[in-house]
Specification:
The radius of gyration is 22 Å and the shape is globular. The chain has 354 residues and is mainly alpha-helical. Helices cover 77% and strands 0% of the residues. Helix 3 packs across helix 13 and helix 8 packs antiparallel against helix 11. It has a single domain, classed as ABC transporter involved in vitamin B12 uptake, BtuC. The protein is built from 14 helices and no strands. The protein starts with a helix and ends in a 6-residue tail after the last helix. This is Iron ABC transporter permease. It is a multi-pass membrane protein. It is found in: Cell membrane. Belongs to the binding-protein-dependent transport system permease family. FecCD subfamily.
């Protein structure tokens, strides 16, 4: 190796290390912002507390009053952590859907998974129909989960048919959205006033019914699925170069898409079944991560986790401060926040090939 080649190699290595260090700093900054957002979320509510009171209740619960301890630990912390786990799960699901389908519009919301979950929940709320008879007590979330998985599996099996392109899959997802929304509208038309109110509230998305059990379930699903994506980070990064190039690098593209779609379906269905329809998190979160840390899955994956969690946690804070004394449905806020951002994203990247 000549001296010039050695110097160029060393320069390239230094540049890569500087880029990696900068990305790590960005992720650390986002993580700090997430911690502040979680603490703020727990401080706000019908009775506002200072951040110092929240920190005292978290780290020195014996030094605070019973009321503050109960409010923070039993009421507000499950809601704050539910926002984090749901936001992270939906963002990761959207990120990997966009990766395997090579489409910036792919997400649990745009592919019909959220609409299917809404229809499943409405079956239980309006007609008392339990798709899984053994889960009558948890009829609404179980119905939502089953229908979300049905939609996801339909998308997957359709993608395995000969001649089906990624554009066709997105169109199938849009068709599912309209189909399930039409079926949901029919159920709402037939529902009683009480059932209709329950369906409308569920479809708006809400974290107010979060419990520790739901937090543990969503966190467990996220922690179980992340190792697969971490292990497949190189293959998923290669897939962004195109199927042919990824295959030439030794990636089994068909198997990777199969496993990723099945895992993503589970990752998207569980949170939606608990909190209702929350759009744009799975769409916008990955785009924010992609803008700040790039496509490399070693940074993109944790970036999607943090950005999704931060987006929904911040939305939870906004839902509490817009109208004093009231907590707005979080799905409404994500739409108001997500749509303008998405317009900016579209116009700022209109000349960039995806």
């Amino acid at each position: 190796m000549t001296a010039v080649a050695a110097e160029a190699k060393a320069t390239g290595r230094d540049q890569y290390r500087a880029l990696a260090f900068r990305r790590i700093l960005i992720l650390a900054g986002l993580a700090c912002a997430l911690a502040v957002s979680i603490a703020t979320d727990m401080a706000l509510g019908p009775a506002n507390y200072s951040l110092s009171q929240v920190l005292s209740a978290l780290f020195s619960p014996d030094t605070v009053g019973d009321q503050l301890r109960v409010v923070i630990w039993d009421i507000r912390m499950p809601i704050a952590l539910m926002a984090v786990t749901v936001g992270a799960s939906l963002s990761v699901a959207g990120a990997q859907m966009q990766t395997i389908l090579s489409n910036p519009l792919a997400s649990p919301f745009t592919l019909g998974i959220s609409a299917a979950a809404s229809f499943g929940a409405a079956l239980g709320l309006v007609g008392g129909v339990a798709i899984f008879p053994g889960a009558v007590q948890y009829m609404v979330p179980v119905n939502a989960f089953i229908m979300a998985m049905v939609a996801a599996l339909f998308i997957h099996f359709a993608s395995t048919l000969r001649g089906v392109t990624v554009e066709t899959i997105v169109l199938l997802g849009i068709a599912l959205v309209f189909t399930f929304n039409a079926a949901l509208s029919l159920l709402e038309y037939l529902a009683s006033e009480q059932a209709l109110a329950a369906v409308v509230f569920w479809t708006m998305g809400s974290l107010t019914k979060a419990t520790w059990d739901k937090v543990f379930v969503t966190a467990a699903i996220l922690l179980v699925t992340l190792p697969f994506f971490i292990r497949s980070a190189w293959a998923l990064t290669a897939l962004r170069l195109g199927d042919d190039k990824a295959a030439s690098m030794g990636v089994n593209v068909r198997r990777l898409r199969l496993h990723t779609m099945l895992i993503v379906s589970l990752l998207a269905a569980i949170p939606v079944s608990f909190v209702g329809t929350i759009g744009f998190v799975g769409l916008v979160g990955p785009h924010i991560a992609r803008m700040v840390v790039g496509e490399d899955q070693r940074f993109f994956l944790p970036g999607a986790v943090i950005c999704g969690a931060l987006l929904l946690s911040t939305t939870s804070v906004v839902s509490k401060v817009l109208i004093p004394g009231a907590i707005l449905p979080i799905g409404v806020i994500t739409a108001f926040v997500g749509v303008p951002f998405f317009f900016v994203l579209i116009f700022s990247n209109r000349r960039r090939a995806w």
